[in-house]
Amino acid sequence: xxxxxxxxxxxxxxxxxxxxxxxxxxxxxxxxxxxxxxxxxxxxxxxxxxxxxxxxxxxxxxxxxxxxxxxxxxxxxxxxxxxxxxxxxxxxxxxxxxxxxxxxxxxxxxxxxxxxxxxxxxxxxxxxxxxxxxxxxxxxxxxxxxxxxxxxxxxxxxxxxxxxxxxxxxxxxxxxxxxxxxxxxxxxxxxxxxxxxxxxxxxxxxxxxxxxxxxxxxxxxxxxxxxxxxxxxxxxxxxxxxxxxxxxxxxxxxxxxxxxxxxxxxxxxxxxxxxxxxxxxxxxxxxxxxxxxxxxxxxxxxxxxxxxxxxxxxxxxxxxxxxxxxxxxxxxxxxxxxxxxxxxxxxxxxxxxxxxxxxxxxxxxxxxxxxxxxxxxxxxx
Amino acid sequence: xxxxxxxxxxxxxxxxxxxxxxxxxxxxxxxxxxxxxxxxxxxxxxxxxxxxxxxxxxxxxxxxxxxxxxxxxxxxxxxxxxxxxxxxxxxxxxxxxxxxxxxxxxxxxxxxxxxxxxxxxxxxxxxxxxxxxxxxxxxxxxxxxxxxxxxxxxxxxxxxxxxxxxxxxxxxxxxxxxxxxxxxxxxxxxxxxxxxxxxxxxxxxxxxxxxxxxxxxxxxxxxxxxxxxxxxxxxxxxxxxxxxxxxxxxxxxxxxxxxxxxxxxxxxxxxxxxxxxxxxxxxxxxxxxxxxxxxxxxxxxxxxxxxxxxxxxxxxxxxxxxxxxxxxxxxxxxxxxxxxxxxxxxxxxxxxxxxxxxxxxxxxxxxxxxxxxxxxxxxxx
Amino acid sequence: xxxxxxxxxxxxxxxxxxxxxxxxxxxxxxxxxxxxxxxxxxxxxxxxxxxxxxxxxxxxxxxxxxxxxxxxxxxxxxxxxxxxxxxxxxxxxxxxxxxxxxxxxxxxxxxxxxxxxxxxxxxxxxxxxxxxxxxxxxxxxxxxxxxxxxxxxxxxxxxxxxxxxxxxxxxxxxxxxxxxxxxxxxxxxxxxxxxxxxxxxxxxxxxxxxxxxxxxxxxxxxxxxxxxxxxxxxxxxxxxxxxxxxxxxxxxxxxxxxxxxxxxxxxxxxxxxxxxxxxxxxxxxxxxxxxxxxxxxxxxxxxxxxxxxxxxxxxxxxxxxxxxxxxxxxxxxxxxxxxxxxxxxxxxxxxxxxxxxxxxxxxxxxxxxxxxxxxxxxxxx
Amino acid sequence: xxxxxxxxxxxxxxxxxxxxxxxxxxxxxxxxxxxxxxxxxxxxxxxxxxxxxxxxxxxxxxxxxxxxxxxxxxxxxxxxxxxxxxxxxxxxxxxxxxxxxxxxxxxxxxxxxxxxxxxxxxxxxxxxxxxxxxxxxxxxxxxxxxxxxxxxxxxxxxxxxxxxxxxxxxxxxxxxxxxxxxxxxxxxxxxxxxxxxxxxxxxxxxxxxxxxxxxxxxxxxxxxxxxxxxxxxxxxxxxxxxxxxxxxxxxxxxxxxxxxxxxxxxxxxxxxxxxxxxxxxxxxxxxxxxxxxxxxxxxxxxxxxxxxxxxxxxxxxxxxxxxxxxxxxxxxxxxxxxxxxxxxxxxxxxxxxxxxxxxxxxxxxxxxxxxxxxxxxxxxx
Lengths: 381, 381, 381, 381
What we know:
- The structure is a homotetramer of 381-residue chains.
- The first copy, chain A, has helices at 20-30, 45-55, 66-75, 92-101, 116-129, 143-153, 182-187, 190-193, 198-214, 307-312, 323-342, 356-375, and strands at 7-12, 34-40, 82-85, 106-108, 133-135, 160-168, 218-226, 237-244, 249-255, 264-271, 274-279, 285-290, 295-299, 378-380.
- In chain A, helix 4 links the parallel strand 3 and strand 4.
- Chain A has 12 helices and 14 strands.
- In chain A, the strands form 2 sheets. A 9-stranded mixed sheet of chain A has the order 13-12-11-10-6-9-8-7-14. Chain A has a 5-stranded parallel sheet with strand order 2-1-3-4-5, sandwiched between helices.
- At the A-D interface, helix 1, helix 2 and helix 11 of A face helix 1, helix 2 and helix 11 of D.
């Protein structure tokens, strides 16, 4: 009886100064199913080696170019099982294409690509390759998001009538991209980030969460974008109306200039007989309000939760899990799917794991918001 | 030295089954400056007498018609000092006009009238009469609303960039107007209520609170209305984008079909350096979040509050005041203004007390929302 | 058909600078059943007149001595229906005795007297007189306290196993009694206040709330008192263990030197199958946690509440009531009882209104805490 | 340049059905500095192998006996760097002694041993060995606990006057140890658990947190224990008064029969000028209340936090960390200390990491509580 082999991950991006690279490493390895073994962490060989050392990998597997990584790893008997992409957005597509062409599955940070057209190209490539592709819409990994989704799916609220999602941050309230803030700089540069500013960085999360939990699709949108901070090259604030596939309506708001807010992602869903509220900063609780009867607070890991919610937790009730655990849930699902795929399953990805379809819809969202803002009115999705 | 004379109030509306009439009585009398002495509580003489008895007034002063009340009370040496209007909206204008023409000041429930045209007519009548006119936008009476207003006015948040106000209720989630619910019935009937459903009943409160606290004016609006409950004759749900006089933008949402919500009026204002949040259901706290520095919770009656906030409280910190106390603040301010006016002051109304200007803007709001919804796009305010 | 006559109240205490006097006036009059018409507001004739003027009473009925008030009012056909006592504690007994001897019912601020012996004397006098006597343990007037009490009484939590009550304030964190703070000065003076400092002022509230809601009696107590602020003459901090009549156990803590706390009265009751939590600073909600099943929040005025809770509210769900409304509930119950008594009912006081029994138990509590602290161990109650 | 070597961990306990074993694995490996490579997960060889497989270790290093593990691993050039103990309490001492005698550092779950006498023996063994010994008082790893500790240490609250710590759970509200609940069974068995029931399992956490944050020592204690559930062999509920080394006083309460509570560990510390509140179920916030000035909420990872708090976080503000991250902080500190020790540092353990001193004090706490309960009065610590 052999120990379960850990899946081998090769990371692109995540060099010194990166925020999300180390988060991917930690999340990927948390549940003991994945190990980072290679990386093209930076386009500087020296910086890539430094990052690799920090991650504890073999120095020979810290590459300065993702193409080189793919090429070299293919030759190894213990080569990587999949690539994870954690770079700025404009590199998502070429890296993904390179991996897929080499027959290597892909896990990607969001948004899927830099433009909607790129997303369609990627969708085609994924389909053609037949390879697993996952997208880290982190918030989909929270147990209470899974519980909310299960409640909607089971019709617990009656027909959904109204949704409201917002994602407010304040960290870009000043023009920090002009003063050397690396995270702000690439996010404010259309060449690296794509055309969506706040809507690309956080609006896509809000949009995904809404569709993921409600089970509904946005069918049309009326959005207004602003560049609140003078000189900023991309939107930093958005308000949008939504129409949904079942006739419900709603709103989506996001902002990076909501001074004082940290990472306030909040979703509310109103049905005929009750409503749900999830706040990412308080992720171990789901507030459930009934038209008739007391308000309820559902707690993570409690035995009365839906099976989908219980499936993803690691600790007993009252022992809070957080952002990193949510992230790790997606990696765990991806890892399990990858093993199935390696064993021959052609459609191993579970419906709970965001993939290329979510990626395309997210990029379509950005595209439609920009078009609606230009027209100052409704556009079809 | 004589005891301070209480001002004598004559009420129109507030008969058996009314919600808001007894609230006006209680609020008016709370601070010991006003006493209800007369009323045309119902158009049924019998029901008016029954209400009068409940209010403890002289049976001879419970009238079945407001015109009769005005006529009879004018003849008395101890006649009413002012009229308060608590009827359905379509009666607001004729009653106010009758009082003003008789030289009697008016305190009115909101909205000021049933239509924008009526509001302009009322504005002219108030101006012509030179009489005090107050409007009970209750939420303006909360100490923490006063504090928020003072903070904005003092520039504590820097330039305001973004506002978000919402007023969600769930009580009309079912077609209760069709099954004998009196409060729902007149609110759903355009003939009694005017053209605005949720936007007239609660949207005007949200709109007023936003302008009252921020000190800004809405300059254009893009709104979408829905009648979510089948067969309902007026809107029960609204989402609106706003542009404000200083270039800021924002959103306003209201709903009577947000199942599970009770009376969730919530205002957030974002400036360059910080933000405010007020929730009507938690009215003794104001949440203040700074771009740099810890989040703060300001508590009612605490010595660090602004003078305007401290001026209206009655209890020490930690002893919660509520909706009725907020209501009573408006009556207290109106009473003080009335005494000044009786003593010769031509402009006795304090800027903190909503009056005819707020009334006209509120009716304009309803008018503009309906027009924007019709056009499916932006309209000037 | 005549208008309902308001009951006439004569107040002792409440002169200029008083906190609780105006609160009693407001609370007594809130529901339209009582009117203050006379008072011995201060022992200075001038200050009493000034207070009377503020309250809007006939100047001839503002007395400088409570004995004079009682004597004069008895002679009037429209004399007072009852006396309310709002003085420092050492005057509670003589005033109450004077009123009872004159055949006048009494409503008293808490604690009932200055010492346990006095409380026994008062109990005997009340019994002998056959007159209604009420005690304003304000917190018993909250709707959600009534709801909690009804839930315990109905066995909703199973057998009660554990209680925890605490009442934390910070306003006496510095020796403010030495620097002219009137409220602190008399509360720190054993001659005016009696032997209990924090335990008399707020500990008695906590004790009463615990017994009132749980329906249990404290049977023994183990308490430790401290005078945290140097030079303070009475305790300002207390921790106590409790044993209760059904075998349950618990804790009671109070403090006036819990810096940063405002008026943090919080009660938790744990039964076999669930628990309750009430916080006075958030009084329109009751938190109910179940051993099996989601946590619940019960909201004031919601239709699913117990009848006792619904009986005392004035506003619909989501329209917060506060401290003054709770206070007024006790006055309303006292007024209704007084009318019944005037109509011949010998036992008109409802079980929901604290009376002399609660007063005696509260004074016994102070006595037992001091004794336990002296002995450094358990004492029978 | 070589990749940083991960430290090799050998686990005792953590076999199938264990709760805390997998938590240790996850926490130990989270920051990429440690890898589990060996274990004596169960006394059944088969079950130990099954657990080892789940953890992904070499089957040859899954032992059925901790002594065997120690012996075999010592022989290997790639043998374990330290042992972690996750068994029931009665095995803590023998395992720790075996490891220390073999020259292997120890990380242990709490409490340190099963009895106070054992703790003294362990303390002597640790001292004699000169080896690093860490104790996983998990809650000491939260960033906001570190922040609270730093605030106390810096005197931000003035002199500490009062503390209140409580740890309430409800999961043992029924006699589940009698019906096959493994976690409840050994915790209720004095032979496996030691003499402290709730006080050993959770009271020691509360006690440690209090001393850890306040920087004060408990000097005497007055405690009362109960076995609330009939037939239970150990205490399931405790209330205790405390006296602290600077003259402050306080309370400690813990319960496993607080029905409806999940894992409600809450610490409040009151100083002359302000107070702190930490709730484990809301661990990314610290509530700070000032005697003068607004209440504050300090958020994890915010730049205004103390250096100690910022040192332990992994994610930006608004991205919640939880229980597992707190746990991992202790392992990260232990790993760093171990590397220093391997490089020759004789005193590598940082003061922020609980060690044998905390272990001895925790066992002394249990001993003193039991003695105080027996005496029904105060005992010296």
